[in-house]
Design goal:
Protein name: DUF2249 domain-containing protein
InterPro entries: DUF2249
Shape: globular
Number of helices: 2
Pfam family, one: DUF2249
Order of helices and strands: EHEHEE
Organism: Rhodanobacter denitrificans
Structural class: alpha+beta
Strand content: 25-35%
């Protein structure tokens, strides 16, 4: 199994597996908050973060796109995109 982490323009890798669990959500919110419209955070995790996705959708609404690139038992890769932010 290989994780899809190929470099693409405006795609920034965030591998949550290397972040202590108690800091993960804060780190993820910070990373997504730093994205500009048209940018994507390629998120790698050891489980499917369904509650996190709900929290992000609550905060960002229609500005957030969620695209699963890989969904395996040992790794999940999701592209979180940001579109149409006001003031950009």
């Amino acid at each position: 199994m290989s994780i899809d982490t190929v470099s693409e323009q405006n795609v920034h890798l965030f591998d949550a597996r290397g972040v202590a669990r108690r800091f993960r959500h804060s780190a993820i919110f910070g990373a997504i908050g730093a994205l500009r419209s048209g940018e994507t955070m390629r998120f790698v995790n050891d489980h499917d973060p369904i509650p996190l996705i709900a929290q992000l959708r609550e905060r960002l609404g229609d500005h957030l796109t969620v695209n699963y690139r890989q969904r395996d038992a040992d790794a999940v890769v999701i592209d979180f995109g940001i579109t149409g932010l006001p003031g950009e």
